[in-house]
Amino acid sequence: MTSIPPLPDAKAQITGPIAAWIGLDWADQQHVISLYDVASGQTETAQLRHSAEALQQWVANLRTRYGGARVAVVLEQARGSVWYALMSHDSLVLYPVNPESLANYRKTFFPSRAKNDPSDAALLQEMVRKNPERFRAWWPEDADTRALQLLTQHRRRLVDQKTALTNQLTSLLKGYYPQALDWAGALDKEMACTFFQHWPALKILQRAKPARLRQFWKKHTRLTSQQMDQRLEAIEQARSLTEDPAVVEASALMVQALVTQLVPLLKAIEQFEHHIAERFQRHPDRGLFESFPGAGAAVAPRLLVALGADRQRWQAAEEIQRLSGIAPVTEQSGQSRWVHWRSACPKFLRQTFQEFANWSVKWCRWAKAYYLKQRGRGNQHQAAIRALAYKWIRIIFRCWKEHTPYNDSLYIDSLRRRGSPLVEDIEKLILRASNVPACGKAVRIP
């Protein structure tokens, strides 16, 4: 596979003053943009349709117009989805503004509290443009980190496509050829694809020569001669779920069509994983993110890009918890108060922390104890995993900020010193599996 060369740093590429200041006021259907061109001193107002494609095209137009020079975009920090869509572009310098700051600035010019989108967009860019030293800019990550971010996102999209195809295969096979689900192996592996390319229906499989089937199993499995004999006998005695030739013929053709799509998809995923591993291997923070229990080859790079390489980017773990959607939203009206999860957030980022938390339950005792305690309180699986992810983000942030790999023994010792009730639950798990080594080693917690 082709090796990817290192990319130049984004800050090194972008030099010179800011060419334009943009205030972006978010809305459900379309965004209002107020652009102040520094060279001409003119202000332009425009509208932008709310879609990923429209945002990407708009950024491309800005890059062309200003020749890759820096463009500052000011927006309310609560607008997570738009923020996340823009944060990976190296020509943009983002300025997050607290909604309350904008509201107070608006009162200076509109004591009546009159509000409309065009004026808010103009106020956003004006407020930061005239006082840039009072706001913290969000610089793009270094090029290698951004490349990892895009690689992991694209890989995940391919994995989702693979899951959709294997789900279709499973549903189809259950309707006419259910035995193949046992004989073909995992549907997202080369063995299953080859199996269905040769034998898409039971009758076709039963006509195959035993020697050919043995050759197939020797290449793709570790079956013993006795196990092969048993499988050959099972195939010979198997009966079709349906004898309707129309169903069998159409279903077999559809299975082969799905496999035809699945084969190149599996190769593409493998190629992405190779490039991710290559970039992750040479990243200076690799050891830190590999230290978290359950963060394997797929999740550890995703955790890295979730926090990034710039230690000044995040000042507190709560910022990450809110942006990722892991932190719940509390609403209150009168004496009513309710808590719900955040719907407006970067989904891939939230998915990253949730999937890591889910894996940590299998490899870390305190994580499993915490998860079981949440379930014992009546929380469903996903709610318990989000609560665990919330706790993990605080730990990951501390390790990341201090450049210190995670040490499970030290963390459990800190729980003991604080008198955490989790310690008793952890000790119960240890008693149940006294022969299991300490957390952090490659052993699954029972």
Distance N to C terminus: 38 Å
- Largest pleated sheet: 5 strands, mixed
Strands, count: 7
Measured as a percent range, the helix fraction is 55-70%
Strand order of the biggest β-sheet: 3-2-1-4-5
Unreliable stretches, pLDDT < 50, 5 or more residues?
4-15, 438-446
Structural class: alpha/beta
Report what the structure shows:
The protein contains 20 helices and 7 strands. Helix 15 packs antiparallel against helix 18. The chain has 446 residues and is an alpha/beta fold. It has 3 domains: 10-140, 2-Layer Sandwich (Nucleotidyltransferase, domain 5), CATH 3.30.420.10; 146-279, Orthogonal Bundle (Helix Hairpins); 287-432, no CATH class. The protein has a 5-stranded mixed β-sheet. Strands 6-7 form a two-stranded antiparallel ribbon. It has helices at 10-13, 52-66, 80-86, 99-109, 117-129, 143-176, 180-183, 190-198, 202-206, 210-220, 225-237, 245-281, 286-290, 299-307, 317-323, 347-363, 365-376, 381-401, 408-417, 422-432, and strands at residues 20-25, 30-37, 43-49, 71-76, 92-97, 329-333, 336-340. The radius of gyration is 27 Å and the shape is globular.
